[in-house]
Amino acid sequence: MSHSPPAMNPLKLLIFFLLLLTASCKKTSNAEIQRVTKREVPTETGRNVEIIYSDSAKIKVRLTTPRLIRYLSDTAPTIEMPIGLIALFYNPLQQPTSRLTANYGIRYVNKNLTIVRGNVIVVNLSGDTLKSEELIWEQERERVYTKKFVRVRTSKEIILADGFESDVTFSHYKFFKVKATISLEQ
Hints:
The chain is about 10% helix and about 55% strand. It is mostly beta strands and about 190 residues long. The termini are far apart. The mean pLDDT is about 80.
């Protein structure tokens, strides 16, 4: 003689499922719904992109990147360069004055602010070379700076410091918290 499980009353089964659904529901606020639905998604992507920043028809910066992702937003549009970039800075005579390379970059469009990270290298016309893990470029102030460790090599010396500030040509710069200055003239 075999025993089968007792049949469940259909009313009890319905009540069980209603209780299960009610227990798993959570009241969601308007702010939470807006946060989830306003999640930033890429609106434009490109490969092998060149961007030219100019003022009065004069090139100030020519930026190239193998991959660009643009996030359009009313409040914080950004342009991300997730696999590296090269930026050439130009003087008013349209001559290149410095070259910057980095493994990653992000531009905050509304703030006119660009941050580059990872193996950042800048070389100016004099051959001075800066190496750091991060640089911040304020476009409107034409200022480049970092609070991170920097190593600058000129024809005369090597300077190690925790902080750096310069104009975009990298010809007028200053250091903060200098750790060492090594003379190369001997």
